[in-house]
Structure formats: structure tokens, C-alpha cells
Amino acid sequence: MILDELVMKNFRQFRGVQRIIFASEADEGGKNVTIIFGENGRGKTGIFRAIMFCLYGERCLSQDEGVTHKELYLVNSPVLQEATSDGEPVESYVELHFRHKNERYSLKRSLQGILDGDEQLEQLGPVVFSRIQSDGNTKNYNDPDEIKRIINDVLDRNVKEYFLFDGEKIQRLTLSSVEQKREIAKGIKNLLNIDALEKAIKATQKLKKTLNTELGKRATDEYKRVIFQLNELDESRDILEDQIRQTEEEQYHADVEKKQIDKKLEECKEILHLLKERTGTEEKLKYEEEQAKNLLAEMKTRTGKASLMLVFKTIDHVFGSIDKKKQKGEIPSEIRKDLIEKILTEKRCICSREILPGTESFNQIILWKNKSADTDLESAALDMWRYLSGIRNHRDDISGTVETLLLKYANCKNEIEKLRSKIENLNNQIGTSERKDTADLEKHRENIEEKLIKLEAKRINLKADLDILESDYERLSEQRKVLEKEENIKNELVQRAHLAEDTCNALQAVYDEFTDEIKLKIADEANKYFVQLLDKESRETLRSILVKDDYSLQILDRWGKPFLANISAGQRQIMSISFIAALANIAASGKILEMPLFMDTPFSRLSFEHRKNLIEMVPGFCAQWILLATDTEFRKQEAALLRKNNRWGKFYLLQSDGPGITIIKERVVADSQYILSDSVEES
Amino acid sequence: MNMSGDIRVKTDRKYRNLYNDLKNFAVGDMHELFFLCSCLGFRAKKKKNLGGNGEDRFWSRTITPEEYACYYAMMLEESNMDLSAIKDDTTIISEMEKYANAGMEILLDDFLSEYCSSGLKLDSSISKELPKALLHFIYEQL
Fold this sequence. Notes:
Chain A is an alpha/beta fold and 683 residues long.
């Protein structure tokens, strides 16, 4: 794919119709470099966005993390404001002309914008796609799925970020998630045509199965049994392989989920300790509240006893009075009251002496009678005295318990208040409700880890079953060969079945060898570029790039140890570019791959030596290099280097034409020395 | 002490809700609340006849020996230690009903009014801590 021309109308900052014609190798002198130069905010990323939108219909770029479609406006806002007074919608489009394998393509994606109050509404319009074939005939396409498929054939969306990327983010290719790695591996296989080999293996497996089934129907006796068993094993193998695939798929998804949770947890790392503290405080609060509840329940049962305190004085007084009478012997009475009454009635003492009224003895007996009481009353008074004595003995306990309960409750309430206040403070620090889920996330992560362990055990068991099956299959295959030899079975169907099996095995061997070889080749090529692009100091620290099985990258230090986590963002960028160059080189079988290298903010993270190396080398290994550069990264010095190697074909300036409006102006390359600023290095 | 258990202890019927609510929220049983009210009335030396407003509230068999002993003591103190004052439990309980009736008025005036929503009914929404408040109120009377 070579980009020829980009036309934009009212797209992002670009008011009206504006265009860029890209330099390419086919141009005079093989000048394949285009520089689009603009200060920050002038719309460089808008151009990048326009290409992504046109090719894939994507509104958001990978650097738009956290931005939703609705928040991102594609239609030029000032034009929209002007049009609102007329009540007309604004038409916007991006048109991209490009070449691929001797055919020319034209793709136009449009949208309409309208202002509804303060809200900017945008609606996607039709996609117009045409292809001018090598014979000169033009074919138009309307079906969105077909357009998508053709574009994907030209540049697989899984690897688009290898060729169209933001320089500041390209290093992310070395940090990609498991899911991204899998997609990238798929894209790379597609780019290198490895997927064609996979398809061929599947086709021969299917053929082998069909032929064996047919053979099973026609065979007889022992041979039939063996063929039947082999077919059964084939079926079982399919099932086992399917189960293994499913298990691996589950493992993969669980792993992706775990990583996503890890990412969220990482984001919440700073509040993790607060969450733990809050959980602890909440538990304490729950305990204290329970304590308070118990204390209240206990207090409820103490009201009766506590009320005794209100009459302690009376208790003391009555107790003392009865006690005194008891001590004096008045209670219980020394002589029963009924006996005294008998003496007074009979006027005669128990010793038969006469006691007459008005005498001293009579009066004494009357006094005595008045002091004595009924036996029942005395008994009641004594009972009361005993109970009052008991109450008095527990007097301190009763008041002490009340005091303790009240004090305990006050302390408990005080503690509850403190804990509540602490939780409130923690909640303020923890913040939004989304982040409060972290504790649940940790629990969920534990569950996923358990699931992963179980899945791995299941996968190992399935693999073991598959190994046993393979060994049975091998044994039966040998038996089959012996039987064919003994019974001289040489018909055409048998030969075809053998041929299919041999082909399948051979293709699998080729596939294994090829993929191993391709990874090594990519690593070799990447290392060549890497060494040339790295600055002197980095070359001393870093030894080589390693391409892993999933086509992700690792870097080894001078002692051969993995070092990826320790390299700088600039070094990561160089590493990624080396990998892309290697990939392009392998995909084009050593020639230059017909693919643009489109870089937004290409040099901002790079040292001058790295920039110099890139400027000197990249135009030589890619078919087209398009740079969206800003004034801080592309200055006189970089421009001079680029002019020197004579590959710079097109130069565009992004200039402001009022708030929110940018116009694209083409300038001759030589003007760069007047337009660009001096570099810091020069000054 | 006879500690008669077959006497129906009466309170003013207007306090029916209060007795029920306080039993739910603040005290263990009716007899304890009655004891508290009697003590309050006795301390204040206030009695109030139930007249025709008496309503059976609980059986005297629930009254504890300690409470009975206190009722006897109150009767004795009131009668200047005349033992005949403790001769009849019905009379004692009847006297205590008068004290309790006056005691409930004191309780209402000095403490319970802020917990009553409308009329003589407790507001459950603010009565959660009533056991503690009541205990504190008793403690404050000393």
C-alpha cells in the first residue's frame, strides 16, 4: 500500500476542502519522504485521525484512552457554528487515494454534523469505494463488509499500528496486552502468509478423514476393525483437541480478565491501604455497635434493680427500725399477744396472782401488750427485714453496676463516633463509588486465579490423554501398515488415504519449521536495524532483540538477560521501529515492502543521535515515510540531515487561520531552512 | 410477707400505651416499671388516686420479693413503723398504685415527655437509647 493523496473537507481543524499529496518512491528521484509540519494544536493528529477514519471508520485512536466517541467531534466546529444560523447540517468527508499491488483505490468516508443546542451531533454518511484494476477497469463497491474485507487485505487492521502510528505510543507495541499480542500475532501471520499454510493443513486433515471414513466402509475383517479404530481415534483426537482449545481459550480469557483487574487494581493502588483500613474500621464499628446494642439490652433488665436506689433511704430507715426492735427483743415478742390478752381478761397471772385494773402490774401488762404485735405481722416484718438486709448488702453492687453500664455505654458511643468519623474521612479520601469496588476486585481476582489453576490442571490432563491417544494411533497405524502388507491391500483409495496423511504431516512439519525460521529471521533482521539505529551508548548496554512465540518482543542485555522492563521510552521506540522494518523486509522477501510508515510525533522521545540514525536509514528501508512533526522535534538540524540524503519529496505546513481552523500549505523542501527554528543543539 | 400473687395491679388507663411502649423499649417487665413509678411517687411523697380510671395492668405474682419488701418498707415508713400497715397486701398494692400513678406523672414531666410523639405514646424513632436514658434519669435522682 502506498498513500497517494488525502483530501479532507471540514474535518477536525481543516475548514473547507484541503489536500495533501504524499511523496513516494515512484516520484522523481525516488523521493519517498513527506513532512507535515505544524505546531501543537494545528491538526497533525487530525491528519492521522483522518487516515484511520477513512480506512477503518475508527473515530478514536489508541492515544484517545478514556475519550468516548460522543466526546470526540470530527466535523469542524467553527463551520458548524456558522451553519447553525442557517439551520443546515455540515457535510464533512475524508477521501484517501492509494495504490496496492498495481491497482489504484479510492476511498471516501463522509459524515454530517449538526448543532442541537450546545450538543454537536454527528451522523456517519455513506462509504464510497472504487478500485481501478491493473487492466484499467474500475469497480465500485457499496457493501460495507466487502469494503472492510478488501481494506483488511491491503493492510490488516491487526497490524495497522505497525505502519500507521503515533511515535510517542509506538513503544506500546512492546508493552501490549495478551489480547493485543494475540491479535498482532494473527495480523503478522496474515502479513507473512503463514495463515495460508494453516489453511492448507486443515484442508488436508479434512481430506484424510474423509478418505479414511470411506476406507472403513469398504474394508473387511481385521483391517476393517483397525481402520474403524483409527477413525474413532481421529474423532476422539478432534474432540480432545477441541477441549484443549476451549480450555486454552478459557485460560486466555481468564488471564485477560486477571490482567484487566490487575490494571484496575494498579490504578487504585494508592487507595488499597485506605480500603483495607476502612474494612478494618468497619469491622470495629460493627463490633462496637453490637456491644452498644448488648449494653442497652442489659440496661433494660436493670431498671427494676436500679429503682431500688430511689428508696435506699427508706430501706435503711425501716431496716434499722426493725433491726433495733429485733435487738430489743420486741420482735419477735417474748410472750405471745394472745397470752397477754388472756391475763388481762382473766385479771389473773399465770402464777395465779390476781392483777386488778388500775394497779401498777395491770398498767405494765397493758404497755407490754401494746408493744407486742401479731405473730403474722412480726413474721412479715422479719421477712421484710431479711430482704431489706439482702438489698443493703448488694447496695454497692446495684449502684456500681448502673454506673459501670452507663460508663461502658458512653465509652462505646464515643468509640462509635470516632470510628464513624474515621470512615467518613476514609470515604472522602477513597473518592468515587467506582473505586470502592476494589475490594470486590481483589476477591474476584482470587477467584480467577483459582480458576486458572484448575484450568491448567485440566489442560495438562487433556494433553496427557492426547499423548496416550497419539501413541495408540501410532500403534494402530503400524498395525494397519502390517495388515496392508500381509493382505496385499493396494487399491487406489488406500493410496490416496496414505498420500493425504503424508501431505498433512509434511505440511505440519513445514509449518513448524517455517514459523520457527521466520521468527529467527525477523529477530535477525530486527537486530540488524536495531544496531544501526541505536546510539553508541545504548549499543554497549543492549545486545539483541528476541521475537517470542506470540511475536511479542524481548530485549537482552549485554549478559543475555531479559532487559525490556529497564529500557527507556526512546529505546523502546527504536526497538519497535527495528521490528517493523524487519517485518516489512521479511514480508517483502528481502525487498522493500510496499507499505507506508506513517509516524505522528516521530522524534519527540528520541535523542539527537537516534533521530539522526532514523533520518539516515528509514527512507532506505520503507517505500514511503510520512512524518507529522512539531517544531520541538523537527528543526533546522533534522531538516538538514533529511535534505542531505535527498529523499525528501513533499513539505507541508499546517497554519492557523483563526480559532479552530487550520489550513494546509505546501512549500518547497528548500524553504525548510527559513521556516524551521534553530535546534537547541546548534545554539 | 404474704407476697400475694393473685392481686390485679392497676394503673391509670391513660397510661396503657405508655406502659406497653416502655415495656418494649426501656424496662424488662410491667412490675419493674410499676416499681419505678411507685418509688418516684414515694420519694416525692405524692399519691394520686386512680378513682374510676384504674385498669388492670399485671398480676402481683410477677412482683419480686425485693420489690414487695420495699413496698412493705414504704408502708411502714409512711405509718411511722406501725406493723399493721403491712397487714394486707391488697391495701399495700392499692397504696402503691396511688404512688405509682403520681410517679408516672413525675416520670412524664421530668423525663418522658421528650420521647413522646403525640399524647401519651412513645416515638419509637427516638426511643432507641431509652434504656440508657432511663437508667441515667434514675441515677440523676439520687
